[in-house]
Design a protein that fits this description.
43% helix; 5 helices; mainly alpha
């Protein structure tokens, strides 16, 4: 017998469509896919709590299920505490990247190992670049990463 989960409204962060009421975001997935195929960089800008994170998470899930890309979303939110400390910020970003890889993929342990190794490097300023480069070189499919940033001060 399937357990009934009571849904509720969430107003404090990203939602989980299984637990929360929500309206699907009106992102044009075809347009985003076109941008990705053309290797464009793009920005999704909208007011706070308008569903950006949830929409991107759903799109990332769709891309991974489709199987043409390896897709991740990475939040930079935790790195805000280290705004004046590059080494600490890079360490936080690499931790966030490792968490997202672990949450999304079962077969990318070499990516986790590489991120851990890069966290011990002296030259932290290039560690994120080196990590992204390693991911792209070792992936059998193109890698698409969405960096979620909160730019409010």
């Amino acid at each position: 017998m399937k357990e009934h989960i009571m849904k509720y409204f969430n107003t404090v962060g990203p939602i989980n469509p299984q637990n929360h009421y929500f309206l699907p975001h009106r992102l044009d997935w075809n347009q985003l896919t076109d941008f990705i195929e053309k290797q464009y960089y793009f920005i999704l800008h909208a007011p706070r709590q308008s569903g950006k994170t949830t929409a991107i998470r759903e799109f990332v899930k769709h891309l991974n299920e489709e199987g043409k890309y390896i897709a991740l979303y990475v939040s930079t939110e935790r790195a805000k505490v280290a705004v004046n400390d590059v080494d600490r910020a890079v360490g936080i970003l690499l931790d966030e990247l490792k968490d997202r890889i672990l949450d999304t993929f079962d077969d990318k342990l070499e990516w986790i190992e590489r991120a851990t190794l890069l966290q011990s490097y002296q030259n932290k300023e290039s560690a994120v670049y080196e990590m992204l480069r390693f991911m792209a070189k070792t992936s059998s499919r193109p890698v698409v990463i969405f960096f979620l940033m909160n730019l409010t001060c």
